[in-house]
Amino acid sequence: MCIRQNSVSFSLAMTAICAMQVNSALACMMLPRDFDGRISQRRHQAILIHHGNREELILRVNYKITGDKTPSHFAWIITTPSEPSAYHLADEKVFHDTGRWATKLLRPTPPPTAQANRGAAKAVDALREPTLEFGKREVIGPYDIQPVRARGSNALQALNEWLAKNGFPKEDPGHMKYFIDQEFTFLCVKINPAAGVDGVASTGVLPPLHLSFESERPYYPLLFSSRQGVFDVELTTLTDDSLDYGGSLDYGGSYHALTNQLRWANPHYKKNVPVRTDELPKTLAKALGKGQTERQPVNWRLNVIQGKSVNSGRYVISGWKSDVFLAKRAARPDRLGLLLPMAVLLIAAGSLAVWRRRAIERTSTHPDPTP
Question: Could you read off the pLDDT of 149-171 as tens digits, one per residue?
């Protein structure tokens, strides 16, 4: 998830805004060409709900624009493993309500004394290259969303050519390769000002954006923010099975990312606390009801992962090999895929040994009378 600086008039490309940054200090929020200033993120917040192969992801970012005036608009790039099937605006209070509720359940008692752990619209005449696919455009609240996908061995070149044709700067191939290799969708989001206002606010918090998409594992978009600068992360997860903190190491190094790269600020919190659907805060339950998740479970597992000063020090995001994918315990092949068959074999071997021993005992007790 990222906010970038752009050098194009948005009228050229509707909201098919997959622009890449010009200034390496800012990663993914985009500003108009004629705006003299900078934009940055200060905090990422997310609520991640995962059941089966369906994810409901609610995102919010705290941004800051510096300059002599405010721009008329800016944009936001979000990566997802598949194109979302639905978009919603979540309740403004969902993060506040969920945060208070989750903290009460997860904060250990008595709390630790370490203070450090507290921080926690014109259609574009686009260049339709064979390797580029454009999803359905959606407009919801201040957001104007255009999904763009790049497929195939020539996808990176085609995407860069499309960006250039539409007035965008080309992106560093290394910054894009992972997402193209994994066939991710780029959600190019234009943020418009409020009705009757000429420009967006210079600082503030964007309305919570709710995405619903398919993902085999719980996914948090962070890798594309590699050039965003330093920011904090607050990720609340609600999953149909326990998060496997150790098992995530087997799925692309996410456990390593939690402990080091995400600069995990609250490892002392309780983990995988069981909660019921009827216990969820009203705003969170409302968001879940709007999602595309079918046959929702009654019981969930709750976790909160906080990161302080992410993308600083030794473990900068640009050095990561993959984005943040978490593992659930039911998905670990070494637990169900190996332990269960081994248990069956052990039981069978034990039963065979008992049968043979009894057969020997019967033979010794009743010897064959035949001379």
Answer: 887 666 777 777 765 665 455 66
